[in-house]
Structure formats: structure tokens, C-alpha cells
Design brief:
Blueprint lengths: L9 H52 L6 E2 L12 E2 L11 H6 L12 H4 L17 E9 L2 E12 L3 E7 L1 H8 L31 E5 L6 E5 L4 E5 L15 E4 L32 E6 L4 E5 L4 H8 L11
Length: 320
């Protein structure tokens, strides 16, 4: 009597494949969510280090670092430009790099070219597609028009930016208190930057650094379709580097992702000019002046977000 060979029938094989497909469909989102949770946690750790470095700087110097440092360049239409990061490097275990940076020159002048080609992992959010970028040029705008500057060998971008405060149009739209009201000013919008005692809103209630991820590329999210558009860098791209001007105002954006005087969307709509933007689902990480880190949801009210962006606005703030 012939023995019967054991094995799967075609139907049984298809059933097994279907079961595996269902399991993958169930488990894959969970795996992706776990990975994103880990990336978001690392991003928060980066901001924690930056926030504590800011706080330690203020303890030593009795004030926070300036947003930018500049002086006139003979024969040029623009000034020397550097920012708050080089002065912070000694508090981020990068003392040698900080000492090598020469503030009497701009980020893209010869004495600083070696420094700006150094990638700083603490300024990179792991959720950013492709991570921070090495770019050789940036565009900006002055009273004489738009101009380009080149950094031979390139400069590394940053996924975090300082907070200047609230754009005048958005401030007036939300509060009705006028466009040039000093209450709209945040940490890096003041000159000089405030001392700890000047932050009357409270250090735990005042943002100092935000995510502004994906630069030097310009991302704009359509809040109606949730589509994320990637466009070439424009003049605001000079706010993209850890070594150059790197602090932005909070602008109001329309639902289609465009900045506008009547726009009211403020979180995860655009990374233009150092505004608040991340690749995390549902919100953005920010560092507070006390060294703490908060995750701010996309649906936070404008009144609350403006309150935690200003440093001496004297707003009545509920839990956020």
C-alpha cells in the first residue's frame, strides 16, 4: 500500500499566508509607534540638555545668551552673524569647539569654517527625515533685497531654534493689544536678553527653545488635507544653522499652510524662519527656561501658546 505524502494543500497555504498578513497588519503599526515614541523621547532628551545648558549659562553670566551677534562688515551690505549656540557649547560638553569659534567673524567666514562643519548630534531630532543637513549656502533678505551667502565646505543645520516671541500681527489678532506691544516679546526677542529675574511669567511657563525641524528645506503642512509639501529653501533659510541666526517668532498660518496676517495656526504648520515645527504626530517638543521639556499639542489654544511664548506678558495661565 502506497504511503500518503503529508504537506499543505493550496488552500491551507493561502490561509496561513492570510493569517501572517493579518498579524503583520496588526503588529506593524505598534512597532512603528514604539519606534516613534523612542525617537520623540530622544528628541526630548536633546532639548533637556539644551535647556539645562541655557539655565547653567544664565547662572554663570546672569543672563541668557543673545539671539545673534553682529557688527558691520566694511564694504558689505550685511553684518557679521553668529548666534547663541557657540557660547552654549561649553555647557554641552563641547568646550573645545566653543573656544575655537570666533565671534568677531561670521559663521561663514574663514576662521569659523572648520567649526561650522562639525555636526552636533544634540541639535538633531531623530524623527526628521534624513536628519540634519550639510548645506553650502543660505538665502536671506535685507533692505537691499535678497542675497545669497556661501559657506565653503558647508555648514550643519539644526532642528531646534530659539524663541523670540510672538509675531506682531498674530499678537494683535489674538489679544487686540496692538502690533508693537512689548508684551509679545519672548526670550530671544529682547535685546539684551532677559535675566532670570526678568521672566515674570515664570521660568517653567516660558519657552526658550522649540523644535523647528527639517531645515534647510522648507516644509509647509496643509491643515485641511494634512498634506506636507516640501519646497526649496527660500530667504528664511538663514535661520537653519546651529552656527548662524537661529531664533524665530511665532507666526500665524492659514489652514493651507501659508503665513498670513489673519492666520491662527501656530504648531506644526511650517518650519519657515525658525517657527515651531516637528515630524512628531500630534505636537512638538519645547524647552522651558527652567530646563524642563514639554510636549505641546497641535490643538493648543492660541491664547495659551502665546502665553508660554512671551516672558513677561503677565497672562493668566491654566494647565497646559
Amino acid at each position: 500500500m502506497a504511503s500518503r505524502k503529508s504537506g499543505f494543500t493550496l488552500i491551507e497555504l493561502l490561509v496561513v499566508i492570510a493569517i501572517i498578513a493579518v498579524l503583520v497588519a496588526i503588529l506593524l503599526p505598534a512597532v512603528q509607534q514604539a519606534r516613534e515614541a523612542a525617537r520623540r523621547s530622544q528628541c526630548q532628551n536633546n532639548l533637556k540638555q539644551i535647556g539645562l545648558a541655557m539655565h547653567n549659562y544664565a547662572d554663570v553670566h546672569s543672563t541668557f545668551p543673545r539671539e545673534s551677534y553682529s557688527q558691520n562688515r566694511p564694504g558689505q551690505t550685511y553684518a557679521y552673524w553668529s548666534n547663541w549656540v557657540p557660547g552654549l557649547l561649553g555647557f554641552l560638553d563641547q568646550g573645545a569647539l566653543g573656544q575655537s569659534y570666533d565671534y568677531t567673524y561670521s559663521m561663514f567666514d574663514a576662521p569659523n569654517l572648520k567649526a561650522i562643519r562639525t555636526k552636533l548630534a544634540v541639535f538633531e531630532c531623530p524623527s526628521t527625515p534624513g536628519g540634519t543637513q550639510m548645506s553650502t549656502s543660505f538665502r536671506t533678505q535685507s533692505g537691499t533685497g535678497t542675497w545669497d551667502e556661501t559657506a565653503p565646505g558647508g555648514a550643519w543645520t539644526a532642528d531646534y531654534a530659539g524663541s523670540r516671541g510672538v509675531d506682531s500681527a498674530l499678537f494683535n489678532l489674538v489679544t487686540g493689544l496692538g502690533t508693537n506691544n512689548p508684551l509679545r516679546i519672548g526670550i530671544f526677542g529682547a535685546d539684551p536678553t532677559p535675566k532670570l529675574r526678568d521672566i515674570t511669567d515664570g521660568t517653567s511657563n516660558t519657552i526658550i527653545v522649540v523644535e523647528s525641524a527639517g531645515r534647510v528645506k522648507w516644509y509647509s503642512r496643509n491643515a485641511v488635507t494634512n498634506k506636507l509639501d516640501e519646497q526649496p529653501a527660500r530667504f528664511g533659510s538663514w535661520f537653519s544653522y546651529w552656527s548662524g541666526p537661529n531664533a524665530g517668532w511665532t507666526y500665524g498660518y492659514r489652514p493651507d499652510g501659508q503665513a498670513n496676517s489673519s492666520g491662527t495656526r501656530v504648531v506644526n504648520i511650517s518650519n519657515d524662519r525658525g517657527t515651531t515645527f516637528s515630524f512628531h504626530t500630534g505636537g512638538v517638543n519645547v524647552a522651558m527656561c527652567d530646563g524642563g521639556v514639554r510636549f505641546i499639542g497641535e490643538n493648543i489654544s492660541n491664547q495659551t501658546f502665546l502665553a508660554i511664548t512671551t516672558s513677561a506678558g503677565n497672562e493668566l495661565l491654566s494647565e497646559f
